[in-house]
From TrEMBL:
This is Gene Transfer Agent FAD/FMN-containing dehydrogenase. It comes from Limimaricola cinnabarinus LL-001. Residues 190-272 form the Bacteriophage phiJL001 Gp84 C-terminal domain. Transmembrane segments: none annotated. NCBIfam families: phg_TIGR02218 (TIGR02218). The lineage of its organism: Bacteria, Pseudomonadati, Pseudomonadota, Alphaproteobacteria, Rhodobacterales. Pfam families: Phage_BR0599 (PF09356), Phage_phiJL001_Gp84_N (PF09931).
Length: 283
């Protein structure tokens, strides 16, 4: 912030905003609402997107900082495809107030993540969520029969990459939300149901989708997704299929032999037992 306060106090200012956006896959890009490119901290900030932001609401307490970003969808900036594919969901965002005549004079104005993104014709509107928004997430555990761990995470403890539980195969054809593989060997029908399909290469590399149904039919394996992957998936695209877990104690014990790490309460009484009342009559 060297000299920035003096610049603000001088009466005549040359200010703009600069944005650094880092997606979950690590891609870092810079944008600015100035009419010329800026560069600092090793980031080039481009003006082509026409991005702007409403007034940033910030407080000294724990209430979430909020704002909204507005920008144009274009091939050189934020694209329609990456919005549809969800590649910007939860992207890390930093916003500076910058003296464009001397970018060394700047102040970090906002740090947080992108929230909900909405389309508005050829524009997009993105909610900005400050770091304090993380404090609004519910914590703790819920008493329930089914496991509350994410399959393959540290609490689950199961290595999902083990042979037989993760398979990588070339795609034969994609029809909407159904993926066809010319592969009938390996696990039985339903093995990958409630698992996930991950795209390894091609235009959709890095994208994934939950699997609704997995079955063998007509000499092929058909994998039906809950929603289509928003990317071109030409024949030959390599996909990784991860076995599904329905969170039941029986599945944890019989399919994965991982019952010692089961994170549910398998013997919790059901609602029928809780609503039962004594009745008179014969034994």
């Amino acid at each position: 912030m060297s000299g920035f306060d003096d610049h603000l106090a001088g009466g005549v200012t040359t200010l703009c905003r600069a944005w650094a956006l880092r997606r979950a896959d690590g891609l870092l890009r810079g944008f600015t609402d100035h009419d010329r490119a800026l560069s600092f901290d090793g980031i080039d900030f481009r003006p082509e997107t026409g991005m702007s932001a409403s007034a940033l609401v910030q407080g000294a307490g724990l209430a979430a900082d909020t704002s909204e970003a507005l920008g144009a969808i274009s091939d050189s900036g934020i694209t329609e495809a990456e919005i549809a594919q969800g590649r910007l969901d939860g992207a890390e965002l930093r916003i500076w107030r910058v003296n464009w005549a001397n970018p060394a004079q700047r102040a970090l104005e906002f740090r947080g993540r992108l929230g909900e993104i909405r389309r508005d014709g050829t524009l997009f509107r993105a909610e900005l969520r400050g770091l304090s928004d993380l404090l609004n997430r519910p914590g703790g555990r819920v008493y329930q029969k089914r496991c509350d761990a994410a399959f393959g995470d540290a609490r689950c403890g199961f290595d999902a990459s083990r042979p037989g539980f993760t398979e990588t195969w070339p795609l034969a054809r994609a029809e909407g939300g159904t993926l066809r593989f010319d592969w009938t060997e390996g696990p039985e029908s339903g093995w990958f149901a409630q698992g996930r399909a991950e795209v390894i290469d091609g235009p959709g590399a890095g994208l994934s989708a939950p699997i609704r149904e997995d079955r063998l039919a007509d000499g092929a394996r058909l994998v039906e997704l809950w929603q289509p992957i928003c990317a071109d998936l030409p024949p030959g695209t390599m996909l990784r299929l991860v076995a599904g877990c329905d969170k039941r104690a029986e599945t944890c014990r019989l399919k994965f032999d991982n019952f010692l790490n089961f994170r549910g309460f398998a013997h919790l009484p059901g609602t029928d037992w809780l609503m039962a009342v004594p009745r008179s009559g014969g034994a």
